[in-house]
Amino acid sequence: MEIMEIFTKGGPVMYLLLISSIAVAAIGIERFRFYSYASHGGEHFLSTLKDWFTRRRSEEILSLCSQENSSVGLVAAAGVKAAVAGESVELALNIAYDEEAMKLRARLNYLSMIVTLAPLLGLLGTISGMIESFNIFSIQAGQPLAITGGIGEALIATATGLCVSIFALIVHTYFAQKLDENLTKLDKAVNIVLAGLSNKSELPKADESEEPKGLFL
């Protein structure tokens, strides 16, 4: 049987399932590219960041962190920048962490929704098809093929919905794991910056030419 013929016999719900499957594929491709970009060189950067805090001044560390485009680099740069400017390091790190975490979680809820929605759409299509089959059977009494054939066609929607749901579940599980890995790296970056700044012997200042003031005399 032709694919288009099977698709057509599944009923109007098949178009919604097709849109759902395309959405899963599009989100999967977009998230894969984003996670590859966001986590590129993250582990190497974290190991290097520890060494920077023991060998370099805060201004130099900020310059090096600003050159790192990964999520951990952006979080680390925010913390060091706040230290250099004399602002709250913890607040800056929390804000940067939340912003990067939000970017990492983006659109994953849609995948979770499709995992639940697709089987329901398939079931809706099946129920609609079975109702139509029973109507045909009541009109054409004595023709059992009318109802059995209709039920067979109605089950196409259920099968398609389950396939879309399984596809979405696999994609969602993969990126949920990637999300956990990247959030762990962000936690490491926050801890390294806090520990590194607290252990530095020199005080981070926005302008080295200015005289120390207040409590730092």
Structure write-up:
The protein has 217 residues and is mainly α. Helices cover 81% and strands 0% of the residues. It contains 8 helices and no strands. Helix 2 packs antiparallel against helix 7, helix 6 runs antiparallel to helix 8 and helix 7 packs antiparallel against helix 8. The longest helix has 56 residues. The C terminus is likely disordered.
Which secondary structure elements does this structure contain, and how are they paired or packed?
Elements lengths: L2 H7 L3 H26 L3 H14 L2 H9 L4 H15 L3 H17 L2 H32 L4 H56 L18
Helix pairs in contact: 2-7, 2-8, 3-8, 4-5, 5-6, 5-8, 6-8, 7-8
Uncertain runs? 201-217
Anisotropy-based shape:
rod-shaped
Radius of gyration: 28 Å
Order of helices and strands: HHHHHHHH
Helix tally? 8
Main β-sheet: number of strands, strand sense, barrel status? none
Helix content: over 70%
Distance between the termini: 86 Å
Q: What proportion strand?
A: under 5%
Overall number of strands: 0
Q: Mean pLDDT score, rounded?
A: 83
Q: Which class best fits the helix and strand makeup? A: mainly alpha
